[in-house]
Write a structure and sequence with these properties.
Layout lengths: L1 H16 L10 E7 L6 H12 L4 E7 L5 H6 L2 E2 L13 H8 L1 E8 L4 H9 L1 E9 L8 E4 L6 H13 L4
Parallel strand pairs: 1-2, 1-4, 2-3, 4-5, 5-6
Helix pairs in contact: 1-5
Length: 166
Amino acid sequence: MFLKLIKDFFIKKRIKNKMHVFSEKTNKIAILIAVDEIYDIENLKTWLIQDVFINNEVSFLLFDESVSKEKTLNSSCISSKSFGWNAVYKDDLITQFIKNNYQVLISFSNNNLYINHIAQRVQAQYKFGFTSRNNAIFDVSLIGTTFANEEYRTELLKYIKSFNII
């Protein structure tokens, strides 16, 4: 319990200290998803790849608190166990995800501390966040509680088109 408080403290501290800076043009798209907050992840992934970002390279990183260590080795899934007590990454998947430069980062999370930490560290030209409250990490925050309905898809498309991403 005490170590979890220390870990949360360091993650919050690192989020406050750094904001994003974009360095180069690319066609890569980063998607962060909190698994417990979206009921049909495969449908969302298919929609993003086939209908929205057709000519782009899309990278997904899923956060699932209930995932075991063995499952994380075989997929793009992480958990709170992927972070050390000093907000250090234990999982190479996070390091590889952060290392790339992206044109767009889209986060589907209701202020998940771990996803926010990763989103803050990712180098992206534009950052979109589906959150339950306004968040300074993102350039555009779409505030709500459910992310898979048609209204949010329409809003996301509207912003992506207005930023000339697709």
